[in-house]
DNA sequence: AAAATACCTTAGTAAAATTGTCAAGTATTA
DNA sequence: TAATACTTGACAATTTTACTAAGGTATTTT
């Protein structure tokens, strides 16, 4: 249950690939597609959304490709998934576009809302930098080093 | 993103209805269906799964219905959703039945695994009792009262 | 200038998952 | 023994996902 769509997964991995090239040359879409074994055409749709969201910029022409708009440590997984799939909304009544039908006495409303907030809070703490360095929990790691 | 299926939502609400009658008479399926505006036939499938999972028992004959197998405080949301939809598996590579294809260097593996664990940890802390009393965060509430 | 490279956009579509319905039962008790 | 209530399996409608296809635009190197 609660599975993330492949689009979201591809998006995060694509952002990771672009982040790897941060500071160097732009990363061409073809290269990303090969690494992920996804078609260029499909990846284009995904990167297009991320571009419209301002997370990446594109450089046209030979030698072109995609570049991060911000530093890797300033791009959270939450931001990426938000752009691709909208906000976390465990139930439709929590979706800003749909809204709750049965207003009266929705006992589970708070449950799903809380869960959604927990999830997003976690995803906001993880950035591309964390993926690059392999340290998922920055603060936890620092604490460990201090106490060691 | 990360939406829970209606089956899961109905299941939790149905368990809530059954929990409300805990200690009294069994709750007939017809009553649950009316409260939730779902067909009896569909609800039957859901309750059947929950019954096979040992979360509820059924009482046949006139005056019969469904009863909780355990006390409300011993039934977590995690247990309910697990029975209906299997374990939390953000990606297919984390699904026990599918497994990971690209074994080498899956940078996002830990990310999705950690997220899944966070989610399940939260859902294990919330029980039907919490829904009944309206106190989602038992411990947090107690702390607040103490410090007040 | 023109050819090559690479991004950009929209429309459509096949497969899979979801969300149910329907029919024909079986078990229990007033 | 009739009424109530649960049980099971098949299957159909709808929606979502995960793409493919096709044509276009922008930039740079030669």
Please, could you describe this protein's structure?
The structure is a homodimer of 148-residue chains. The termini of chain A are far apart. The first copy, chain A, has one domain (6-141): Orthogonal Bundle (Arc Repressor Mutant, subunit A), CATH 1.10.10.10. In chain A, strand 1 (56-59) and strand 2 (65-68) form a beta hairpin. In chain A, strands 1-2 form a two-stranded antiparallel sheet. The longest helix of chain A has 17 residues, at 109-125. The first copy, chain A, is mostly helical and 148 residues long. Chain A has helices spanning 6-20, 29-36, 40-52, 77-85, 109-125, 128-133, 138-147, and strands at residues 56-59, 65-68. Chains A and B meet through helix 1, helix 4 and helix 5 of A and helix 1, helix 4 and helix 5 of B. Chain A binds a DNA duplex (30 and 30 nucleotides) through residues 5-7, 28-30, 38-39, 41-42, 44-45, 47-48, 51, 58-66.
CATH level-two architecture of chain A: Orthogonal Bundle
Radius of gyration of chain A from CA coordinates:
18 Å
**Count of folded domains of chain A:** 1
CATH superfamily annotation of chain A: Winged helix-like DNA-binding domain superfamily/Winged helix DNA-binding domain
Number of helices in the DSSP assignment of chain A: 7
Rough shape of chain A? elongated
Per DSSP, what share of the residues of chain A sits in E-state strands of 2 or more residues?
5-15%
Under the CATH scheme, which class of chain A? Mainly Alpha
CATH topology-level name of chain A? Arc Repressor Mutant, subunit A
* Pair with the biggest interface: A-B, 38 and 39 residues
Order of helices and strands of chain A: HHHEEHHHH
According to DSSP, the number of beta strands of chain A is 2
Strands side by side in the biggest sheet of chain A = 1-2
């Amino acid at each position: 249950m609660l599975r993330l769509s492949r689009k979201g997964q591809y998006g995060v991995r694509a952002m990771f690939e672009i982040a790897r090239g941060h500071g160097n040359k732009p990363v061409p879409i073809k290269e990303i597609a090969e690494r992920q074994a996804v078609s260029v055409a499909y990846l284009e749709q995904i990167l297009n959304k991320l571009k419209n969201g301002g997370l990446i910029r594109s450089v046209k022409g030979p030698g072109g490709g995609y570049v991060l708009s911000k530093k890797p440590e300033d791009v959270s997984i939450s931001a990426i998934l938000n752009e691709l799939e909208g906000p976390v909304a465990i139930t439709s009544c929590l979706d800003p576009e749909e809204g709750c039908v049965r207003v009266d006495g929705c006992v589970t409303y708070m449950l799903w809302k809380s869960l959604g907030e927990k999830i997003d809070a976690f995803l906001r703490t993880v950035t591309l930098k964390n993926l690059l360095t392999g340290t998922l929990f920055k603060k936890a790691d620092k604490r460990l080093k201090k106490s060691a």
